[in-house]
Amino acid sequence: MAHTNFSDLLEKGKLKRLGIMGGTFDPIHFGHLVTAEHARESFNLDGVLFIPTGNPVRKKQSGVTDKELRFKMVELATEANPHFEVSRIEIDRPGDTYTVDTLRELKTIYPDEVDLFFITGADAILDLLSWKNTHDIGEMASFIAATRPGWDINVAKQNYELEQIQVDICYLEVPALAISSTYMRQRIKNRKSVRYLTDEKVTNFIFDHQLYMS
Ligand code: NAP
Description:
Blueprint: H1 6-11, E1 17-23, H2 30-42, E2 47-52, H3 67-78, E3 84-86, H4 89-92, H5 99-109, E4 115-121, H6 122-126, H7 134-140, E5 142-147, H8 153-157, H9 160-164, E6 169-173, H10 181-189, H11 200-208
Helix pairs in contact: 3-11, 5-7
Bound molecules: NADP nicotinamide-adenine-dinucleotide phosphate.
């Protein structure tokens, strides 16, 4: 099947509901891919645009892998799915990366008739109130919060701060999110196999570039 071209869908008026898959993806794994696919299916999304974070503000201390390498891994992992595309929006934008800036940029590309659904990990969303311009974010997109097995949804439902903000949040339980980027990095560092945790092309890329070895 030909690769879905979102601009084509847009021109034909067939792009009504677009998923925005935000994450550091260091590295991308099957948990992320299953999340995007299940979100697409469950929320009737016309496509999912992966947006690897450029310069995540909160990870300055811990450090992340070079953004071009993370971007390439996302490209390799998603290229086989005609409903997925990858965006360089955050990779190319200089300075600290904030979701509000990304959504503003997307709003200049996609008309108001296209509903945006920001998909990411439920843990990331728990502290949404501390993100830059949360109110504006809530006006531009709904959230799909992916939860890992064992994640207690009541933690979010009883989160007083989340109740205060006008943001539409739906939860999506994703069993495959038992895999995490941290788990993958640890396994690679300990010289353990990561086969079957991510796409083989990503595994090969990781080893070709000697990522996460130390
Ligand atoms: P994170 O804090 O590294 O991740 C929190 C949890 O969510 C982790 O368990 C992570 O698992 C999971 N996760 C992250 N992205 C996911 C995805 N797309 N699907 C499923 N699970 C996911 O989160 P992050 O990657 O830095 O940030 C997530 C998104 O929120 C990014 O787009 C980021 O730019 C945005 N964000 C924006 C602000 C702001 O604008 N101020 C602040 C924080 C985050 P893995 O480690 O396995 O991915």
